[in-house]
Design brief:
The chain has 390 residues and is α/β, with parallel strands linked by helices. It contains 20 helices and ten strands. The protein folds into three domains: 94 residues, Fumarate Reductase Iron-sulfur Protein, Chain B, domain 2 (Orthogonal Bundle), CATH 1.10.1060.10; 142 residues, Rossmann fold (3-Layer(aba) Sandwich); 123 residues, Rossmann fold, CATH 3.40.50.11810. Bound molecules: iron/sulfur cluster (2 copies).
Length: 390
């Protein structure tokens, strides 16, 4: 029950001034994918600023509509970029989620996914052994053995994306990388928990324990997931967990392998190739040029009209898929419509959630318009179009 509860205010009070800065000009509304998906002002950043102020002042009590407004959002952060008053909308939003989480007011579906994380170690509710189902034999032999590079697959890639999982290890094998992995002992990074308003410190400590068990201890962690990357690279240090190891998104490592001659490009893509910036890698981590540099080995990279820090969300961020799948899908369809205007053949991203959103939406898009897109992750492009050094 959410009705009638009041927030404590400890997390939100430092942003009180931010809620006052909002002039309700509505510029944030012009970019907000949650607004575009629902045409409901309640979902815009300006409404969230008003709600945060009201909750903090004790003028309003929590109810379902407030929880819905705060969580029907991909946390894409485009509102903060667009805001002429420089309101820290993202920080206010996350602090409000933390307040609501503290009094157990989060959407039911999101709560179910978090219960899965507690009970099974992943949001999908799969057994730990599911993490090893798609791992090829040569990589299975390296689980828990230690090595230079630890591959942290993340829950989405390891449990739901057979192609990505196989491609990652096949590339590393052919490039002669001394890598290791954790298999069924890989913990969830806790990113969904942080999106829901909880901290991820315990997940960081668990990962640290697993890393410390590896011998030799890896010098680098690579992950294909921007959410895992943000968590390991930004959130854990903020929460006092020092993994004492460098963390990179895998695309930067793959580009390095090509530059070092350990991977050789064998083919180029034919057709129009658009790169989509994932919010968690782009606006939130400011990694814009490395994916373009990597993709440029394989194609002339074309741009969405809204790209880099202006990129539109695929709909898969912020836990919105758990909260309101229909809005997520509308956002993905809107982005595909943008790609269609540019006559794209390939939509390439560097995020398993973006790939999943676009792949599912592309099926509906083809039914509606006849247009077929090839949706790929950068890892898959590298896998299909390189060979190891002879
Ligand atoms: S753009 Fe900024 S100031 Fe304008 S309504 Fe949105 S949050 Fe408020
Ligand atoms: S973070 Fe994105 S979805 Fe959420 S209010 Fe801001 S622009 Fe809208």
């Amino acid at each position: 029950m959410t009705e009638g509860k009041k927030i404590k205010g400890d997390r939100l009070k430092e942003f009180y001034d931010q809620t006052l800065l909002c002039t309700s000009c509505g510029y944030c509304k012009s970019v907000c994918p949650a607004f575009k998906g629902t045409l409901w002002d309640h979902n815009t950043a300006r409404s969230k600023m008003v709600l945060a102020y009201g909750l903090l002042e004790g003028e309003i009590e929590v109810d379902d509509s407030i929880v819905q407004s705060i969580f029907e959002c991909t946390t894409c952060g485009d509102c903060a970029r667009r805001c002429p008053s420089n309101v820290k909308t993202y920080e206010v939003l996350m602090a409000t989620r933390q307040e609501l989480a503290e009094i157990h007011c989060i959407p039911e579906n999101l709560g179910s996914a978090l219960k899965n994380v507690d009970a099974h170690g992943n949001p999908q509710g799969e057994p730990a052994s599911a993490r090893e189902e798609f791992i090829p034999d040569e990589a299975m032999a390296r689980i828990g053995k230690g090595g230079d590079v630890l591959v942290f697959l993340g829950c989405v890639t390891s449990i739901t994306d057979m192609k990505m999982t196989g491609a990652i290890f096949n590339i590393l094998e052919r490039a002669g990388v001394d890598y290791t992995l954790l298999g069924k002992k890989e913990p969830c990074c806790g990113f969904l928990n942080s999106l829901a308003g909880y901290d991820s410190e315990a997940f960081g400590k668990k990962l640290l324990e697993e890393i410390n068990n590896l011998n030799p201890r890896p010098k680098l962690i690579v992950t294909p997931c921007p959410g895992c990357f943000r968590t390991l690279h930004h959130h854990y240090p903020e929460e006092g967990v020092d993994l004492n190891i460098e963390v990179k998104h895998i695309l930067e490592f793959l580009d390095q392998l090509i530059d070092e001659g350990k991977l050789e490009v064998t083919k180029k893509l034919e057709g129009n190739v658009l790169y989509h910036d994932p919010c968690d890698l782009g606006r939130h981590a400011e990694i814009y040029e490395p994916p373009r540099k990597l993709l440029a080995h394989f194609a002339e990279v074309k741009e969405f009209k809204y790209n880099r820090d202006e990129s539109h969300c695929c709909g898969g961020g912020g836990g919105l898929q758990s909260t309101n799948y229909d809005i997520s899908t509308i956002m993905a369809m809107n982005r595909l419509a943008e790609a269609n205007e540019l006559e794209a053949d390939f939509i390439v991203s560097a995020c398993p959630a973006c790939k999943a959103m676009f792949s599912t939406a592309a099926v509906d898009f083809k039914k509606e318009t006849g247009k077929k897109f090839k949706v790929r992750d950068l890892v898959e492009i590298v896998h299909k179009n390189t060979k190891g050094k002879e």
